[in-house]
Amino acid sequence: MDKFRMIFQYFQSSSESVMNGICLILAVATVKIYSSFDFNCPCLPRYNALYGLGLLFTPPLALFLCGLIANRQSVVLMEEWRRPTGRRKKDPGIVKYMCSSVLQRALAAPVVWILLALLDGKCFICAFSSSVDPKKFADLANMTASDVQLFLTKVPCKDDVLVRDNPARKAVSRYLRCLSQAVGWSIMLTLIVVALLARSLQPCFDQTLLVQRRYWSNYVDLEQKLFDETCCEHARDFAHKCVLHFFDSMRSEMKARGLASPRQGAVIPGESGSEAKGLAREEGEKDLLYGLANRKQVNQLLATWYRSKPALDITRALQPPPGEGGGGLSRRGTSCPPAAPQHTDV
Questions:
Q1: What pLDDT, on the 0 to 100 scale, is given for residue 346?
Q2: pLDDT at 137
Q3: For position 277, what pLDDT does the model report?
Q4: For 106-125, what is the mean pLDDT?
Q5: d(CA 65, CA 274)
Q6: 226: nearest Cα among 121, 334, 310, 102
Q7: Regarding predicted confidence, which is higher, 339 or 133?
Q8: What is the DSSP string of 80-148?
Q9: Fewest 10 Å CB contacts: which of 1, 76, 175, 187?
């Protein structure tokens, strides 16, 4: 269990590595799904283009949505974009940085699918076989217009009686496959060049904004995680206190009615009832309730967190109490000047 807990904590602390791993898994799954998919073009007028283009773009759209769902930062992005300003102003640059990061990871699997489909050529042949100019092929010159259209529609179905062992069908299929592969390789080369330019030219620009936006985007993600963990811990402690209070009240009521057994009413040897209550009260003061004793107060706390998050300024928390020299973080907090407003607000 300790090993699983360490792995889980590592995944929680390094969300970027997790997202990269999820993108890689989706890309590998895309290759596996496409290789196992049985492609069958309908070879019917007005349906070839619909089927081919649908198979070329519909699965990438589904993979794109799956990438958005799997990426936790997409939810954090929407919360940061839609939250009220409150005491913490919103920085549009951070929202743009998070949106760019989410889109880059979500587009990995769809791009892999489109490139595989174009390099394979089946979808392209099915979608555009009816749009080929018959004048480019000498074998189609002796056919009528209706025969040519029917022949081009049957090109993706090599086992059809009309086009079986026909050299014109092989020529049209080879032409469309070469065109599809050319488009696929062009897209791949363009993406590689863009990625190379982005990687090479990035150090040439001012890195201050990039570092700040990366820092505060990670801060927003980690802050939400810590808030959720603290809420879970507080809810557990609150439920524990409510359950203990219920059993304590029921035991008192049963005692008053004379229904409590001697075992239920027994106390721990060496401790009186007042001492046990005092220890329980002392233990309750050390819990995480922080004075929140009912549902209304908890709801008010959560509403305050959502509507008006605390300002990103901990200089007061780092200052030592009056009359004390303080040490460690306290001395560090008093010696460091407060950060600039544009660096401390998200």
A1: 45
A2: 84
A3: 55
A4: 91
A5: 61
A6: 310
A7: 133
A8: HHHS--TTS---HHHHHHHHHHHHHHHTHHHHHHHHHHHHH-HHHHHHHGGGS-GGG-GGGTTS-HHHH
A9: 1
> Treating both helix axes as pointing N-terminal to C-terminal, what angle do 92-106 and 15-36 enclose, rounded to 10 degrees?
30
Three-state secondary-structure class, residue 170: helix
Q: Where do we find the tokens 């007061």?
A: 316
Q: Nearest to residue 111, comparing CAs of 177, 64, 65?
A: 64
Q: Report the C-alpha gap between 225 and 223 in whole angstroms.
A: 5
pLDDT beyond 60 at 10:
no
What confidence score (pLDDT) does residue 338 get? 43
Q: What angle do CA 59, 62, 68 make, to 5 degrees?
A: 145
The Cα–Cα gap between 121 and 167 comes to 19
CA angle 192, 195, 198 (to 5 degrees): 150
Exposure string of 294-323, with b = 16+ CB inside 10 Å and e = fewer, is eeeebeeeeeeeeeebeebeeeeebeeeee
Closest CA to 80 of 213, 221, 208, 210: 221
User: Angle at which helices 208-257 and 72-82 pack, to 10 degrees?
Assistant: 90
Residue 337 pLDDT > 80, yes or no?
A: no
pLDDT tens-digit readout, 272-289? 555 555 555 545 544 556
Q: CB of 146 within 8 A of CB of 131?
A: no
Q: What is the pTM of this model?
A: 0.72
DSSP per residue over 174-228, as a string? HHHHHHHHHHHHHHHHHHHHHHHHHHHHGGGS--HHHHHHHHHHHHHHHHHHHHH
Q: Which residues contact residue 186 at a Cβ distance below 8 angstroms, ignoring those fewer than 6 apart?
A: none
pLDDT at 268: 40
- Specify whether the CB–CB gap between 55 and 96 falls below 8 A: no
Residue 221: partners with Cβ closer than 8 Å, 6 or more residues away? 15, 72, 73, 76
Structure tokens at 306: 């959502």
Question: Which helix (H) or strand (E) is 292 found in, with range?
Answer: none
